[in-house]
């Protein structure tokens, strides 16, 4: 791990060369939700009571007794005794406040069709679907899996689940059949909402076929509901134990479903994410803490106001979409834009066309998208009037200063602050970023930890490092949006994330996100990247072990090592080094089978950039694969010391093979 950090440090030097700073524009500060820098001190002094400010953004059916319960640390509990319903907070209360006719979701399909749901419409459909789910037998605490692309029925299903107290588990639609089955089996989920298909670059994709294949691998009975997205474009058969979404909604039209009062600590949803080991982890988020935190950060960092039109271009299949397309924005009663497709369809100005057409005020995207926009050139944003924009955000991976400045200039017209937000599936919401109405911006550095977030950089012994030195990012105090555990696996929750330090006064639990970072003299954190075996492909987390086990599952493969190599657009790309069984030929057909094996097991996002056949992997004398060398080879870096290897000669041979094929 230390080596990982060292290497990242070199990259960083390049990144922060000629550090420039930018002040938030006056026009932004004048109207910002948070403008007083004393908030940092106030949250520190009043911690954990400060988090009442987050809880106060919600309506509670039953007030909470205690802000933070730490008896069973690290199984912290937030807002204990409180009761609330997430769907009530995202819908009913706005309708009651007179916002029935305000747009809640503005959706654009890839082919240009649009749908607008007002808060009133959304509430009606959520109630109808919630009634249908109940009729089908869904009870409180049953996990409902949602395997859908970016169509309005996805947030509707999420909110319908939340309404009746059934946690949802959204599986990214780009994941494979096998990935769906693994998640459904792991969560014992007996209900599934899916769709017939959707559009990608103008083509109708068959999603139902993939779903059915997945369902055949689920080891219990499943009741499914199918949204008809494609109509005549793709006919589908419902099959056994399956229902049509529209039929159900029509049948239950006008139903009134009381939102169930959930305990603050009751699970709102599960979200599977990749870790170091092969099996994805089911991250558990709660109703009170998570929703308060997503809403608070949407207010303080994204500066969302009810009258805004806000657009986050992530997919709801990932945590960013959960917190910052659905829960945070809707809890604040704003208009959230949803786009089904890709940024370059039908043309490379699609995003800017959406910003112009909807007069988007706030735009939140990923560095991988910005790198693509840069490559395509300024002519595309220049075709459109982007003057409605007030704030820009990024998430998912480090953004280099060049991309930051491009975003600032060509999208924000040097008039919008940028928030570079560091956080994770596990943190539920943003943790390290500037407050846009308060802080100076430093391109390349995410910013200081948010008020009330105790993020520090430590060395291997857990001691804080000096400013400028690289170390491990840690969070030393709990926060409301934190994951509570891993589904059905408390032990793994502790071993993956927490370390206990004892001194005379108390035992302290420290959270390790598995990222390397640096802090500067002003307390700004620069995130260097993962220090575990997780790679970040276009802002999507992939476990190298998951990919390796998919490859080893292909017949004829003996061993595989997967690493991330630098990639201009994706940030990192998957490189697979593969040893074949004796007698197997390293043919293109074999390579294809390996790639297909990965796509089948995980999905196209995990598709290896290169499959390199090799007779051996570089190993230390104790038999450990030297991943760092493989990463250097993949990234085209100079190769470091190989003298500690048992088989140093293999390194050059592998390096020769990369890019040869
Ligand atoms: C990385 C996405 C640098 C980081 C919300 C983290 C970032 C992982 C940033 C979580 C950022 C996310 N700067 N790195 N602004 N945001 N990361 O769970 O490595 O999909 O641990 O959550 O993405 O990915 P996840």
UniProtKB/TrEMBL annotation:
Q: Where is the composition biased (Acidic residues)?
A: 1-11
Q: Where is the AMP-binding enzyme C-terminal domain?
A: 546-624
The organism's place on the tree of life at top rank:
Archaea
Domain named AMP-dependent synthetase/ligase: residues: 99-479
> What PROSITE patterns does its record include?
AMP_BINDING
Report the sequence similarity comment from the record. Belongs to the ATP-dependent AMP-binding enzyme family.
Name of the molecule in the record: Acetate--CoA ligase
The organism encoding this protein is: Natribaculum luteum
| Highest classification ranks of the organism | Archaea, Methanobacteriati, Methanobacteriota, Stenosarchaea group, Halobacteria
């Amino acid at each position: 791990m230390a080596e990982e950090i060292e290497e990242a440090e070199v990259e960083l030097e390049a990144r922060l060369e000629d550090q420039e700073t930018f002040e938030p524009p006056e026009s932004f500060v004048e109207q910002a939700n948070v403008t007083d820098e004393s908030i940092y001190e106030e949250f520190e002094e009043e911690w954990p009571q400060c988090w009442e400010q987050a809880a106060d953004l919600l309506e509670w059916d039953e007030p909470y007794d205690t802000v933070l319960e730490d008896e069973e640390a690290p199984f912290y509990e937030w807002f204990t005794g409180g009761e609330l319903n997430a769907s009530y907070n995202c819908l009913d209360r706005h309708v009651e406040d007179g916002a029935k006719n305000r747009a809640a979701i503005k959706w654009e399909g890839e082919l240009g069709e649009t749908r607008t749901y007002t808060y009133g419409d959304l509430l009606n459909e959520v109630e109808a679907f919630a009634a249908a789910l109940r009729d089908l037998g869904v009870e409180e605490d049953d996990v409902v899996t949602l395997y859908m692309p970016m169509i309005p029925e996805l947030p509707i299903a999420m909110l319908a689940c939340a309404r009746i107290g059934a946690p949802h588990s959204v599986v990214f639609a780009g994941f494979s059949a096998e990935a769906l089955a693994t998640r459904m089996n792991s969560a014992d989920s007996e209900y599934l909402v899916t769709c017939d298909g959707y559009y990608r670059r103008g083509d109708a994709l068959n999603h139902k076929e993939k779903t059915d294949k997945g369902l055949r691998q689920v080891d219990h009975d499943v009741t499914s509901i199918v949204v008809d997205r494609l109509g005549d474009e793709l006919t589908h058969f419902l099959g056994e134990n399956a229902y049509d979404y529209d039929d159900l909604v029509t049948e239950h039209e006008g139903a009134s479903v009381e939102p169930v009062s959930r305990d603050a600590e009751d699970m709102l949803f599960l979200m599977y994410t990749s870790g170091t080991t092969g099996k994805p982890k089911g991250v558990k988020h709660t109703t009170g803490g998570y929703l308060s935190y997503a809403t608070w950060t949407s207010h303080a960092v994204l500066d969302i106001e009810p009258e805004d039109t806000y657009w986050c271009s992530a997919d709801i299949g990932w945590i960013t979409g959960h917190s910052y397309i659905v829960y945070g924005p809707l809890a604040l009663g704003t208009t959230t834009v949803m786009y089904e497709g890709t940024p370059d369809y039908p043309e490379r100005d699609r995003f800017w066309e959406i910003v112009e057409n909807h007069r988007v005020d706030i735009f939140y995207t990923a560095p991988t998208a910005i790198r693509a926009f840069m490559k395509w050139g300024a002519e595309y944003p220049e075709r459109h009037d982007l003057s409605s924009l007030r704030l820009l955000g990024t998430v998912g991976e480090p953004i280099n200063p060049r991309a930051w400045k491009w975003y600032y200039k060509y999208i924000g017209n040097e008039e919008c602050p940028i928030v570079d937000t560091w956080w994770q599936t596990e943190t539920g919401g943003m943790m390290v970023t500037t407050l846009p109405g308060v802080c100076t911006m430093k391109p390349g550095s995410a910013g200081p930890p948010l008020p009330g977030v105790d993020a520090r950089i430590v060395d291997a012994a857990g001691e804080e490092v000096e400013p400028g030195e690289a170390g491990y990012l840690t969070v030393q105090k709990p926060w409301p949006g934190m994951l509570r555990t891993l589904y059905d696996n408390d032990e793994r929750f502790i071993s993956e994330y927490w370390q206990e330090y004892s001194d005379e006064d108390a035992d302290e639990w420290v959270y390790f996100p598995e990222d390397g970072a640096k802090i500067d003299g002003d307390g700004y954190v620069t995130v260097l990247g993962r220090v575990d075996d997780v790679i970040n492909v276009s802002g999507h987390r992939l476990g190298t072990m998951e990919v390796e086990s998919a490859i080893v599952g292909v017949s004829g493969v003996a061993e595989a090592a997967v690493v991330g190599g630098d990639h201009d657009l994706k940030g990192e790309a998957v490189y697979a080094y593969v040893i074949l069984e004796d007698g197997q030929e390293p043919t293109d057909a074999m390579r294809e089978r390996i790639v297909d094996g990965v796509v089948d097991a995980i999905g196209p996002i995990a598709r290896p950039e290169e499959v390199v056949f090799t007779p051996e992997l570089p190993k230390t004398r104790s038999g450990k694969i030297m991943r760092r060398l493989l990463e250097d080879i993949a990234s085209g870096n100079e190769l470091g010391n190989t003298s500690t290897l048992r088989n140093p000669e293999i390194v050059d041979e592998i390096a020769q093979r990369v890019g040869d094929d």
